[in-house]
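Morning F.,

Quick status update on the modeling queue. The single chain you submitted on Monday has been processed. Sequence for confirmation:
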Amino acid sequence: MIRSDLAALPDYVPGVRTQGAVKLSSNESAHGPLPAAVLAMQAAATKLHRYPDFQSTELIDALADHLHLPPSQVAVGCGSSALCQQLVQITCMEASDEVIFPWRSFEGYPIFVQVAGATPRAIPLTTDHRVDLQAMASAVTENTRLIFVCNPNNPTGTVIAMEEFRNFMDSVPDHVVVALDEAYFEYVRTSDTPLAHNLIGEYQNLVGLRTFSKAYGLAGIRIGYAFGSNTVISALKKVAIPFSVNSIAQAGALASLRASEALMERTDEVAGLRNRVAAALDAVESQANFVWIPGEPASTAEQLATQGILVRAFPEGIRVTVTTQTEMNHFLKAWEAIQG
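Structure tokens below.
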């Protein structure tokens, strides 16, 4: 009754949570939604007996204005994760179709590919924990349909340089879609990195992905957006689940988008704290809302948990989400304690 290949499908592992502990195991904001977003969502909640706007018209218009694009080049989805899966659906039809992505990176990539019945091609990071664009370009074959580039990369927080991205795009065939996954875009404080909204006019096969789950504090309502050529965006909308972007999510995202000054204050705070934490731990330089400590074993995470601090352990190291000054002080104190 069930597809036999699902037995080999990896499980998505969310960050652990324990009552009373400081939760630094998920890349979410420690702050609640912006006040304007709370009011907008409360108002939207009075109309939950009605279907949401299927086209998310008001939000897409606002996003298009924000990105300086026509609305036809913008789509919204149930988190950027849903849009990632839709990208696989619109590009892959056969088991031989290949999707390239960096590894380690966002855990959803190989899952989305295998769910669609396509072939995942994971390309190792460089020795300095960066996405290896040269190796990814070299991995392109006649079967390649889609490439995910996570920038900043999750879980390492590293970014790619503008020149290397342009060289990469120039080497990728025009019929291969490249998704620049910018889930942590709002935390970036370097100018030498590609930004999708500045480049999609040059590359018709490039699509940008962003989310309201991180900096905007709306992880619980699941809303993200994609932008690119009319061809790609039109196809994304065709495979979307009807009414998957609910009315509360649309209202919260729209109000958040209009409160950019308050958002910048939050992200500035996190950017300052992450630099302090990275320096204290000799961690990898990050442009996201987390820091990466390579080589740390899972036992380190277990020891931190005994101190009431939850972090995310991977086979290659540990990721620590940067939240508030109070929580970071608790984390650093616990880190010192387990280091002896």
